[in-house]
Each structure stands twice: as structure tokens, then as C-alpha cells.
């Protein structure tokens, strides 16, 4: 159950990341937002506890289009889809044959999958600073430190190669560390709005009011 919650929070992080307007300023982060209107990538996700033990490894893919539209899909070990068209969020658990529907405003809060889509939320909720690595690795590292102790993610670290997002590590209030490594990244590929709408299959249970749509 905790790992499902973590996946949901990752989804929310991307949603914040996809709807951003500038407020404060960090050169590395701002260059990413200015140069990236859409993003498509595969990812490998690892969830660890504070002792470094791996709790779960997942594979999946991401499609993101600003503002507020994205598809976060896990393919292994269990197929789950998180979809936003900018107004509605659908959470589809294929194995459970269940779809949850939420208004996007219910899902944003302080969560870091509504970060890849919204710049204002980043600076409103996090203090953004550069990280200088002792051993240069060709990446630019940025740390997002939560401004409030009750935030779901206490800290988020992003790694960029030029302006392309390559890694993301999130430290949550459960004491778990979630790391995503991105590959096959395509930037600014055009996506039709209809790709971000979702019609639940007839055989699944649907949780959520029609008004959320």
C-alpha cells in the first residue's frame, strides 16, 4: 500500500512540474522550464528505505505536455496508469480493474508530478539551490528543500544534462527515497490534447464523481 502511495505522489510531482510560471529564480531549473514544453521518456524507478534497502523496482514511461497534461505509466511489476488532461486525473490500476477519478485541484497540494508541470508551485513550496558535486559528472544538480515540515516530500534532487532531466530523487515523509532515472528522452515532441483523455474500460470499477470530469 505504501508503494502505491509513493507512485501516486510521484505522479503528483510530475503534475506540478508541468504547469509552471516563473516566480523566484534558479538558472538551471528555469532553463529547463523555458526549453521544455513537452517531454517523453522511459524511466526506471527504485524505492529504498533509510537503510538503503530496495523496497521496490519499477519500469515505466512518461509523457508530459504543459500545462498540466501528462501520462505516467508503470509497466512492471504491476501495470498502473496516471493520466491528467489538465482538469481531471484518472488513476487506473489494471490488476485491480479499478479507476479513480479526481479533479486536478484535489491532487496538486504540495505534491512534487504536479512539479514537472507548474513552475509557481515549485518556488511556492520549495527553496531551490544548486548542488556542487565534489567529482564532476557532467550533470547539473538542483535541490528542492520543502519550506514547511508537513510537506509530503521533504527534499527533491534533480539532475540535468544541459537542459534535459536525467534523474530525480525524492525524500518523502515516510522516510523512503524514490529515485527515477530517465532514458530515451525526447523533448518538445508535439502531442494532441486527446491523448490525455481517458475513457475507463466498461468492465472496471470507477471511483469518483462524474463532476470531477
Write the layout of secondary structure elements.
Blueprint: H1 2-16, E1 17-18, H2 27-35, E2 38-48, E3 54-65, E4 69-76, E5 80-85, E6 88-93, E7 98-103, H3 104-108, E8 114-117, H4 119-125, E9 126-131, E10 140-146, E11 153-161, E12 164-172, E13 177-187, E14 205-207
Number of helices: 4
Give the C-level CATH assignment: Mainly Beta
Distance between the termini: 26 Å
Average pLDDT over all residues? 82
| Assembly of the depicted chains | single chain
Can you say what the CATH homologous superfamily is?
Lipoprotein localisation LolA/LolB/LppX
Question: Which word captures the global form?
Answer: globular
Query: How many strands, what sense, and barrel or not for the largest sheet?
Result: 12 strands, mixed
Reported by name, the CATH topology is outer membrane lipoprotein receptor (LolB), chain A
Portion in beta strands:
over 45%
**Radius of gyration, taken over Cα atoms and rounded to an integer in Å:** 16 Å
Contiguous uncertain segments of 5+ residues: 19-23
Structural class: alpha+beta
* Order of strands in the sheet with most strands: 9-10-11-12-13-2-3-4-5-6-7-14
Number of domains: 1
* H/E element order: HEHEEEEEEHEHEEEEEE
Helix content: 10-25%
Extended strand count: 14
Tell me what the CATH architecture is.
Clam
